[in-house]
Design the sequence.
């Protein structure tokens, strides 16, 4: 996503996707907005502890949508969203 788009345009596209997410997907995305980058095992354990029944499936969907990235042994908030958080903080109003 985003060939030729500015960071702000890429963020706007991703935020429009967030609006269409369900409650559980938003809960998982909020976790990554607050933690940015988390090891695979730790993320799954913590999300289960927070009541997410199948965190691996939810994470995979968010990766497919481009909201998260899968690294080597970790998951990260997508780069344009990391940049947004660095500049403006966590968009809590989007994740309720």
Sequence:
């Amino acid at each position: 996503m985003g060939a030729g788009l500015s960071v702000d345009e890429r963020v706007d596209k991703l935020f429009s996707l967030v609006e269409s997410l369900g409650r559980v997907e938003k809960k998982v995305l909020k976790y990554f907005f607050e933690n940015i980058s988390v090891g695979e095992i730790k993320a799954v354990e913590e999300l289960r502890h927070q009541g997410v029944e199948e965190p691996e499936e939810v994470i995979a969907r968010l990766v497919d949508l481009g909201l998260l990235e899968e690294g080597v042994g970790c998951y990260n908030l997508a780069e344009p969203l990391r940049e947004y958080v660095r500049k403006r903080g966590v968009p809590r109003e989007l994740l309720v």
User: Anything to note?
Assistant: Residues 7-87 form a domain with the Arc Repressor Mutant, subunit A fold (CATH 1.10.10). Helices lie at 7-19, 23-35, 40-49, 55-64, 79-88. The mean pLDDT is 91.
